[in-house]
Structure formats: C-alpha cells, structure tokens
Amino acid sequence: MLLAQLTSWESMISPVAERIVLVGALTNVACALVGCYLVLRRMSLMGDAISHAVLPGLVLAFVFSGSLSIVPLFLGAAAVGLLTTFLTETLHRVGRVPADASMGVVFTSLFALGVVLLKRYVTGIHFDISCVWEGMLSKAALETFDFGGWQIPEQLKTILPVVLLNLFVIGLLWKELKLSTFDGPLATSMGFSAPALHYLVMALVAITTVASFEAVGSILVVAMLIVPPATAQLLCDRLARMVIVACVFATLAAVFGYWLAVYWNVEPAGAMAVVAGAMYGIAVLFAPKYGILSALRGNLQTALRILREDLLLMLYRVEEIDPKRRLKPTEARSAVGGGLLAWWALRMLRRRGRIEFREGTIHMTTDGRWRAARLVRGHRLWEAYLVKHLGLPLDHVHAPADWVEHYLAEPLRERLETAVDDAGRDPHGREIPG
Amino acid sequence: MLGTALLGATSGAIGTFAVLRRRALVGDMLSHAALPGICIAYLIQGRRDLVGLSLGALATGLLGITLVTILRRWTRTKEDAAIGIVLSTFFGAGIVLLSRIQQMPTGNQAGLNTYLFGETAGITRHDIWLIAGVATGCLAVVALLFKEFQLLSFDMDFASSLGWPTLALDLVMMGTLAIVTIVGLPLCGVILMAALLILPSAGARFWTNRLGPLLVWSAAFGGMAGVMGTFLASPLPTQWFGASWFDSSKLPPGPVIVLSASAMLVVSLLVAPRRGILARTFAELRLRVRIAREHLLRSLFELGESQLPERPFVEESALVSRPLWNQWTGPWSLGRLISKQLVERQGTMLRLTPEGLAAAAEVTRTHRLWELFLVESARIASDHVDRDADDVEHMLPASLIRELESRLAAAGRLPVVPQVVPESPHEL
Predict the structure, then answer these.
(1) Chain B nearest C-alpha distance from A171 (Å)
(2) Domain at A148, CATH number
C-alpha cells in the first residue's frame, strides 16, 4: 500500500504527469467556462447532445478535407453544433415537440447518421469508437514539441486557443451574456439579441467539445460541461464567482482524477469525471447555503425553536388555569410530542435559564415567564384578529394561531393589537397578557 | 427482425410516458448509468451472464433515477443539470471499472463492449423470448395502470390531491422504462436505445391528441422502425431489388433503425393531418385567401354604400387606393370574386352582383358589429376600432354575431331589422 502510494506520488510529479494534468486541466477549464452558461440557461443536456451530434460533422469534414487536420474538423463540428441547436429549436417551435424530446430526437438522429456515414465512407483509417468515449489523454505524454527547452504536449496547440477563445468571448460579451442568460426577453428588448447570443454559446460549446474530444473523450466533456458549473452553482450566488469557482473545480478534478487514475491504474478521463462527480456530491451535502446538511440543520433548528416555544406556551397555560400546578419533565415532554427532540428542547430551555427544575417539577423563571407571555400574546392576538377581521368561527382559530404564533415579530404584534383593539381579551374570553 | 420490432414497439409505448412527462432524456441517462452496473455485475460474477449483467445495469439505472429525483427536489440543481451530472459521473465510473476489468487476467471485455454499442445481429432465440416476456410484462403494467399513468402524465398535482401514491406510481413508470432500456441495451447500444424511447412517440404525437391511440401509434412506429431498419441493413434489399448502388453490407442495423424512426418523424411532421406542417400551412393559406376576399367585398360595399339600394359601378383605381387593398393578394382575389360572379366588371368599372352585395353586406355587418361592441362595451374611441375589427371580424362565429346583434339591439343601437348593416361609427 505504502509502496503504491510512493510510486503514484513519484509518477504524480514526473514530467509525463505534468503534461497529462496540464492538458486535462486546460480542457476541463475550457469546458467549465462555457458550461456555466449551459447550466444557468438550463440547457445542460445541450452539451451531451452536441457532443454526440458533432459526429456527422467530423466525418463529413474528414471526408471532404481528406485529413484529420484540426481546422476543417472545427468548422464541421461548429456547423453541426449550430445545426443541432437550430433543428432542436425548429422542431420545438414549428413541430410543437417538447423541448427535451426535440433535443433527444435531433442528437440521436444526427449521431446515427454519423455512425452510418462513418461506416460507409471512412474505411481507410482506424477510427476506434471507444476512443471517442474515453479519449486519449495518455497521448499527451507522448507527443510533444519543444518550446524554449520545455516539452509541450501537442494537444495544447488545440486546447489552448479554445481556452483563450472562450475567455475572450466571455470577457468581451460579459454583460450581454449575463443579461441574456438570466433574462432573455429583457436582453432582446434592450437590443442584444438573446437568440443570437444563444447560438453563439452553442457554437462555443461545439468548438470546445471537438477540441476536447481528442484529449478527454466525449464523456468527460459532458461531465466537465455540467458538473463543475453545477458544483459552483451550489456554492455561489454571483456569476463571476461561479465561473471562477467552476474553473477551480475543473482544475482540481484534473489533478485528483489523474492521481486516482494512477493509483488505481485506470483511464484518467473516467477518473476525472468520477472525481468531479464526487466533488459535486460533497458540495450537495456540505454547501454552506444550498447543501442538504445545512438545509437539514436549518430545519432542525426551526423544529427545536418551535418545540421550545410550545413548551413555554404550555407551561404558561397550565399556570394560568391552576396557579399551583407544576408539570413533571416527562409530562411536559409527552405533551409536545415526546421523543429525543422534546428532551433536547427542554434541556435547551433549562440551559438558557428559561426554566428550572425544582423537586422534580418544572418552574418557569422570570425571563421564561416573560417570553411565554409574549408568545401567548401573539397567539391570542392572532385568534382575535382572525375572528374579528376574517369572521372565522371560534373553534377554527386555535389551529392557525398555533402555526402563526412562532413567526409573529414584535412590530407585527403591535399592529395586530391596534387592529384587534379588544380590551385585552381573546375570543375565548381569556386575558391577552400585556 | 422480430426482436427489433418487438423492442421498438415496447420502447415506443413506454417512451410515450417519458416524453409526455418531459423526461425524454431520462432514457439517455438510464442507458449511460447502466454501464457501472454492468461492470460491477461482471466483477462479481466473473463471467458474462446476460441476466446478471442486466440486473446490475438495472440496479445502477434505478440508483441514477433516484439520485436525479433527490437532486431535483432537495438542491438548487435543476433537472437537466441533475440528469447530466448523474449521466456523466456514472458513465465515468463505468469507464474506470471497464479499464480495470481490461487489466484483469480473466478480462475478456469484448462481451461488455457489445453492451455499449449494440449487436442486433447477435439476437438469439433466447433473447427474443426475453424481449417478448419483458414486452408483455411492461404492456400489462401499462394496461393495468393506464388510468393512473394517464393522470400522472398530465396532472401530477391533481393525482396527488386525489390521494394517489404518486411517488410510487412514478417509480413504477420509471421502473418499466428502466427495464425496457436495460433489455434493449445489448441489442441497440446506448444512444440508439435512447432514440428508440423518444423518436416513435415524438412522431406519433403528430397524429393524435388522445393517449390511448398515441400509445398504439407510438408502438406501431417503433415496431415499423425496427422492421425497416433491420431490413435495410440486411442483405435482402440488394438481393430483392438488385440495386447495386445500395450496398447494405456497410450499414449497421442500429443506426439505420434510428434513422428510419427519424424519417417517420419527419414524414409525420410534414403530412400529419391538423398538426403537420403541410396541413397547418394549407389551413393558414385558406384563411388568408378568405381574409383577402372579405376585405375586398367590404371595400366594394363601402364604396357604393351612399347609393344603396342601387349597385353603382366604382372605378378599380378607387378600390386600389383603399387601405384594405393588398397589392399581392388583391388582383388574384378580385379575379376569383369575378369568376364566382360576386363582382362584375365592365372595363375598369367594378360592381357587386346581387349575390355579391348580400355577401358583402354580411361581411360589413360583422365588422361593424364588432366595432360597435368595442365602442359600447370596451369603451374604445370610435376612431380606434377599425383596425381591431379588421383583425377579428374573420374569426367571429355566427353565434357570437347573433349575440352581438341582440345586445346592440337591446341597447337601441341597431336598426329594427337586423339584416340591415348598421352605420359605421367612424368616417369611412
């Protein structure tokens, strides 16, 4: 085990590793840059669609140009990418096919067309279809050129311009893209054509997809278009931060993905996708604002607060009916539903000095009684308000007031009091504490 | 061929629900998410056993669906991104496992590869029985839960307000989808399976507005795509038609099935009655012709209105200078009116025939009734109503005209005999 770690660490800092990670990271960043806009536009699967649909474009470009040089492939792919977008929109608008179905129709058909064309016309060269899925990241290590004494991977020649292109377009049209992403009709009405910008984004996606294909394969393209931006979306509320965070995650996915690939001795592209997915999973659980755990914590806190307030309310009412009577903790807990939460809520009340335990029974402190009175006041004011202004019958007002009492702030209570103006009595005839 | 037809029909019927629920791409996700399951099943079993692999695929497929549902409900991630995330991450994990299997000493992963890209030629009798069984099972589920699925597809909230277990029903629906997808995978491959779920029902949607017929159409389309695709990719067409240009030996059956389905979709898009492009274009053209004719009749009526009940001749140039004259459709519609003997021509002079006058009076009456309605009820200034009425007059049904008449008559705004055209509320 230790030995394996040592070897992997060594291979991690070798020049080969550096090259692979460099190519992987740049590819991922290129994808993440445009991916942010895809995710925000709720067009995430357009990435999947385009990455499959470009196949006929690639084949035709290859057939017509007769070579695998990059420029015709780019042109063919960008053209088919735009065609995919256009056909999807047209089928949706003219044919009234639902948007997701029309996307599915178009990209599967184009992909099938691509496969047929491939089988018919491209017989001479070896076109390994699994390399489309998995990519040839390891090639980065082998094919290099000399640049000022450094061995630079060949694939950087295609990836780096695409990263720069994406950065350039996004930087140049930052405002316009932002506006059209979040409010297309407003952008159009202000003179920036949202459809044109949409097609621009899709063209960028197509170009990025093709550029990344060779290096990382289609599946990692889809992963990198969607997963890092979605992760960033869970963590940020501002577009600029989201783009930066997405790029950081994309880079991290490349680094750790490669590490994992070496460690397990598996395909780097797949491992990078898995790492990106794992980072998304962590973000889903632990994101400070939108994570599941923070949501659960928020729910728990609210539940505990409501239980504490219910306990205080109950103690107050018991004292009101029979000033001598004091409840035992078990009675109090079972009265609010019992269970661990009730136990915890009672304990919190004691630690905060709202109640005291004396001779096995619960006594409210002055502070506790004051707080309970405020809650009861809110409850009864709300009941009075419901009866007076909404005309609800008497036996229908307790339950809604039970809900609302926990959310009545002081200013609202004051306004309720002026609205009710009922000489300090609730509709049941009980006193509203001052 | 029987196998692909069966598979096409089943996936067509089941896919209908996915398309209706706006979840067309779930099939795509399922077929990607199946890969890690296949690999895990292979690792556990150590050999290629169809049932075991399918169960593994089904397990991860269902896990994927569950994850998508959870992500959509509990996080900020939208449905499309959730599908994409699950799809790519699961597939990435599958690739990782696959390259792991390749390194194993026993690693014969050729069998696993067919799972990804499909091998229709390799359908055995055993597979056909399997597909037939699954098809019967799934169709039985659909038949049994037809009412439930129908409501679920169109009004989820109503279904849950009726107290139905929508989540469970949803899972059953997605479960049948998953089973069909997993069974079809080794035959069609990842992408083509996704296509088989979406294409037939998208095409069938053009032909009917009712769910029952939709399922039948969709199953028929799917079955036909299976038959056509397998036929075109088999050596048969070359033998039968002697077509030397048609070299089917280079055609892979899977993609050809998909392309047949897309061809059916395109044909449906064009020629389907009511929803097809041709039918809709034709209907729109007819409407335009009618509008042009009615505008001409009204222009002629209004030009001669001051001399009623005489039918005076008017100069054609006077007609051309009216705002309603359309230089593109005008001459043609005028010719049609003359040939239908609604208008008669003497030199450059035009005149309504008695039938033409009646028709023109009817058209003008509709126009003015709507103008009067706008003035009276919508309180729009009388010089603003002409254009609005121009747009609406052609669409007003006879019942509405009668109602307008009775209302305006009750308000005392109509002459006693309602056949008479009321006066225009504005200057002509």
Answers:
(1) 24
(2) 1.10.3470.10
* Closest CA–CA distance from residue B168 to any residue of chain A (Å): 23
Q: Which residues on chain B are in Cβ contact (under 8 Å) with A44?
A: 78, 80-81, 83-84
Tell if the CB–CB gap between A105 and B255 is shorter than 8 Å.
no
Residues on chain A touching B99 (C-beta within 8 angstroms) = 134, 266-267, 270
- The third-level CATH classification (topology) of the domain covering B283-410 is Arc Repressor Mutant, subunit A (1.10.10)
Residue of B nearest to A227 (CA): B85
Q: Give residue B428's pLDDT band: very low, low, confident or very high (50, 70, 90).
A: low
Mean model confidence pLDDT for chain A: 82
Interchain contact A254–B (C-beta under 8 A): no
| Of the candidates B257, B237, B261, B256, the residue with the CA atom closest to the CA atom of residue B247 | B237
- For residues A141 and A219, membership in a common domain is answered with yes
pLDDT (0 to 100) of residue B415 = 46
The nearest alpha carbon in chain A to B203 belongs to A97
What angle in degrees, to the nearest 10, is found between the helix axes of B125-144 and B146-154? 70
| Nearest-angstrom CA–CA distance, B244 and A79 | 33
Indicate yes or no: CB of B252 within 8 angstroms of CB of A111.
no
Is the pTM higher than 0.90? The answer reads no
How many CB atoms are located within 10 Å of the residue B69 CB?
Answer: 16
What's the ipTM? 0.80
Angle value at C-alpha B378, between B374 and B379, nearest 5 degrees: 95
Q: How confident is the model at residue B57 (pLDDT cuts 50, 70, 90)?
A: confident
> What pairs with residue A358 in β-bridges?
A361
CB contact under 8 A, A290 and B76: yes
Two tokens, residue A379: 């409850």
Evaluate whether residue A185 is within a structural domain: yes
Q: Is B23 on the interface with A (CB under 8 A)?
A: yes
CB contact under 8 A, A44 and B205: no
Q: Is A94 on the interface with B (CB under 8 A)?
A: yes
Calpha distance A184→A182 (Å, rounded): 6
Confidence of residue A149 (pLDDT cuts 50, 70, 90): low
Phi, psi of B2 (to 5 degrees): -60, -40
Question: How does residue A229 score in pLDDT terms, banded at 50, 70 and 90?
Answer: very high
Rounded CA separation B353/A134 (Å): 78
Is A424's Cβ below 8 Å from some Cβ in B? no
Domain ranges of chain B: 2-196, 283-410
Say yes or no: B256 contacts chain A, CB-CB below 8 A.
yes
Residues 24-63 (A) with a CB less than 8 A from some CB of B? 39, 42-45, 47-48, 52
pLDDT category of residue A6 using cuts at 50, 70 and 90: very low
Residue A227 pLDDT exceeds 90: yes
CATH of B2-196, one of 3.40.50.2300, 1.10.3470.10, 3.40.640.10, 3.30.1370.10: 1.10.3470.10
Q: Is B204 on the interface with A (CB under 8 A)?
A: no
How many residues make up chain A in this entry?
434
**Count of alpha carbons within 13 Å of B40, Cβ hemisphere only?**
17
Distance between CA atoms of residues A412 and A408, nearest Å: 6
Length of chain B: 428
For the stretch A67-107, pLDDT in tens is 666 677 777 877 888 888 889 888 888 888 888 888 888 98
Which residue would you say has higher pLDDT here, B383 or A374? A374
Is pLDDT of A277 > 60? Answer: yes
B88 Cβ under 8 Å from any chain A Cβ: yes
A283 → chain B, closest CA residue: B75
List the CATH number of the domain containing A404: 1.10.60.10
Q: What is the mean pLDDT of residues A311-332?
A: 85
d(CA B420, CA B218): 54
Is the pLDDT at B321 greater than 80? The verdict is no
